[in-house]
Amino acid sequence: MKAILTRHRGMPAQDGAGVKLTRIINQPSLRYQDPFLMLDEFRSDDPNDYIAGFPPHPHRGFVTLTYMLAGRMEHKDSVGNTGVVESGGAQWMKAARGIIHAEMPKQEEGLMWGFQLWLNLPAKDKMSPAEWADYPADKIPEVALDGLTLRVVAGSYQGQQGPIQQQEQQFEMYDLRFSEAAAWQQGKVSQQTRLAYVYQGEVELNDSLLQRGELVRLAPAAELTLRSKGEAGMLLLAAEPIGEPIAQYGPFVMNTQAEIEQAINDYQRGRLTTTT
Question: Does the keyword Transcription apply (predicted)?
């Protein structure tokens, strides 16, 4: 069975107060991958590319997951949560009915490298209370295999359970870190949405060579053999689609245009985080 359905590369973008990043999902060549709404990679050792950060801004109707490979980013929000995510750590924020937060670098030099993933919420959960959780690197399980380490950010692998468990939308997120020439196999998965992104080096997927910066859509029923000739890194994502209409306006993701207009109105009137 053909494993790779389509291949894509991200495009340069800016967000926040001018942070330079690569938009991988939710760009012209790759729109929503239900329930994954957006995937951004930020990677630079030039402070001018990230120092302005992401000042306070609103969200409603979805979940954000920030996963860091290098650097330090501070989170503060309107619910009173605060925390710093560092190399190897993750932060999960369920915006739901509304939250206003800021993500600002806690460094003035050095490499800042990580990802932000947006996941949709089902209509029945979009107006539920906001939540937030911080998971430092030592809370993310690692499975040591021959020549590589598999980090379980979400989902489970060989009895290891990732810390991010979202009842509204179960999903898997693995970080495969090859330290030398090695191979890893994965059978068919039950989830219909299945993605892989190479963030470092090169990875051979079955008979196709994938280079850094490439994302592929995978057939859920396909068996995978991943091989690396040296140091490399890959994210694997899998989830079941929600299958509902998506209406988006910037930081608001709902099901209808009327709900988007309500979100804008609520934000302008200072009622974003309430249900009345």
Answer: no
